[in-house]
Design goal:
Distance between the termini: 9 Å
Structural class: alpha+beta
Largest sheet: 4 strands, antiparallel
Strand content: 35-45%
CATH topology: Alpha-Beta Plaits
Family: Belongs to the P(II) protein family.
GO molecular function: ATP binding; enzyme regulator activity
CATH architecture: 2-Layer Sandwich
Helix content: 10-25%
GO cellular component, one term: cytosol
Protein name: Nitrogen regulatory protein P-II
Number of domains: 1
CATH class: Alpha Beta
Oligomer: single chain
Keywords: Nitrogen fixation, Nucleotide-binding, Phosphoprotein, Transcription, Transcription regulation
Number of strands: 6
Amino acid sequence: MKIVMAIVKPFKLEAVRDALTGLGIHGLIVTEVKGYGRQKGHTEIYRGAEYAVTFLPKVKVEVAVEDDMADRVVDAIAEAARTGQIGDGKIFVHALDKAVRIRTGETDAEAL
């Protein structure tokens, strides 16, 4: 099993969710986060004063999947989140050792 974690632009969340639903993914976790990468933030003007925004708003999407689905999930997220502009985000894949559905006690693949 794998955890696929994607950091994407907030306005791309619905497209990512739709792409994952199209693959048969039924559950995901979404967290609002802030961060920066190569763009290192930007400057904005508010009420005539210029200030630096060093941490940009992003959305973290986490999905637990079986090993054979991980590459398809990564491809679907990348396609749905891509704008071609700097700051599109990143996707990380982690090994998942164990999963337990608390309500039923099901474990591993059955718990997903």
